[in-house]
Amino acid sequence: MKIKGLLHVHSNNSFDGETPIKKLAKLAHKQNFSFICLTDHLEKQSNISKIRKECKENSDSQLKIIPGIEVEYKDSHILSINFLDKRLLTKTSLDTYNLVNSKPQSLAILAHPNKKRQLRGFKHVEVWNAKHHGSLAPKSSLFIKNNINFCGLDLHKETHFGKNWIEMKVSKLNEKEIIRKLKKGDFKICNKFFCIGAKQTISNRNKIIFILINQYFTLLQRIVYRTEKIRKKFPKLMRLLQNVY
Ligand SMILES: [Zn+2]
Ligand SMILES: [Zn+2]
User: Which of 9, 71, 75, 145 has the fewest CB atoms within 10 Å around its CB?
Assistant: First the structure.
């Protein structure tokens, strides 16, 4: 069966998230998503067991909420999915990424890089972070041959829900199967306009289109977030523009 899921989602267990896991589950059911990879920023070990418990309680036969954390790594972050270990709360390195990916049932992804040089040593990369790169298109300069390319929401509030998503085919719905497919790159990254295979390279034509869209997004971001005067003068237009994320 074909399923859809969301990656890089923050709940209110994270300092930067405002949506309870229960509410995320409700939204997922409503919009037909079958899995959510939760990746909260956690400071305390006690939160690890809380997250695990809440993910389990809000999962059912139609929806799997997979627990995870997001940790600092140089000038980006690393998403650790289904591997919540207190060692990750103190320090991270490329070894952290390799450690998590060495476990068959967990997955590590480099989160929201902006430059190609940040990708060194990583195979699993979030090339399309709706918050950092916009929900309209991935950042084409981050596509590298033989890498596995992910899209993530970096969801902090409900309005970010479902702006991009992952599609895959599974024989049955369980965490193990979802992580296996994600790790292998057996999925597509999508929004309402198009889907791209996780291991697909993109054509020069699409590269140019994505670059133009990314630049449009950056420009909008500047206007929306930095120009207080315009924001006050044209509140309706600003709300419309904000829809890109
Ligand atoms: Zn981050
Ligand atoms: Zn995040």
Answer: 145
